[in-house]
Write a structure and sequence with these properties.
Helix content is about 35%, strand content about 25%. It is an alpha+beta fold. It has two domains: about 5-175, Nuclear Transport Factor 2, Chain: A (Roll); about 175-220. A six-stranded mixed β-sheet has the order 2-1-6-5-4-3. β5 and β6 form a beta hairpin. α5 (about 175-195) runs antiparallel to α6 (about 205-220). The protein starts with a helix and ends with a helix.
């Protein structure tokens, strides 16, 4: 299965959302989602059901505050979900929503400059409709761009997260099944290595070696 129908549905929805306004976004969403669409976000958006609730909770406030919105994707692919025994089909999109921050959003003051809202979105497609969505965006990163520091200084770098070094994260076309299986195996191994590195310090040497192995593999895998 090459998941082209699911990819086309979601990319078409993204294109339509890209042309939508705060006044039209609800009707645009209705053209692509099911009546019982389940949408899961993080605070303060939480769980919503149906196009009206999602529009009122996220998209209308966002599009009222941001103008010239562009979806700058670094990752896009589709596949079956390992968690439910590979029964459901999902698409994955990750990147930034780039826009001019012209009005307040969630109490964050506008900058009147370009901002990049980092996001990751997962869409379950069934019978030609988006039935379920999980959407996560980095509001702390947006606050930093507006000059706000709600948390103590971070130890990591503050930056616009770059995409894959190989610039091949956008899988709009068909992908050989064996490549997807190899990628899934690598990710699962990396997760296992991270878990191994979370053990007590006296046992951590082997975990560090496994993590370095995963990073080397990630840098050479297509």
């Amino acid at each position: 299965m090459d998941f082209q129908a699911e990819k086309k549905l979601v990319t078409s929805a993204y294109a339509a959302i890209g042309n939508a306004t705060a006044f039209s976004i609800e009707s645009v969403l209705r053209g692509y989602v099911s009546d019982d669409w389940s949408w899961r976000g993080m605070h303060p958006f939480h769980e919503q059901s149906g196009a009206t609730a999602v529009a009122e909770t996220f998209w209308i406030p966002f599009l009222s505050a941001m103008t010239k919105v562009q979806r700058r994707q670094d990752i896009f692919f589709a596949g079956r979900n390992q968690i439910d025994g590979f029964r459901s089909v999902w698409t994955v999109s990750m990147g930034h929503l780039m826009a001019l921050f012209d009005q307040p959003f969630l109490g964050i003051p506008p900058t009147n400059k370009i901002v990049m809202l980092r996001y990751a979105e997962f869409n379950r497609v069934e019978n030609g409709r988006i039935r379920e969505t999980a959407f996560f965006c980095d509001l702390l990163h947006l606050m930093h761009q507006a000059g706000l520091r709600p948390l103590p200084p971070q130890t990591g770098a503050h930056l616009v997260q770059p995409g894959p070094a190989t610039h091949d994260g956008l899988q709009f076309g068909s992908v050989p099944e064996n490549e997807g299986a190899a990628t899934l195996a690598l990710i699962n191994r990396m997760i296992g290595d991270i878990a191994a590195n979370s053990i007590p310090r006296r046992l951590r040497r082997h975990g560090m070696q496994r993590r370095k192995r995963s990073w080397r593999a990630a840098g050479t895998t297509t």
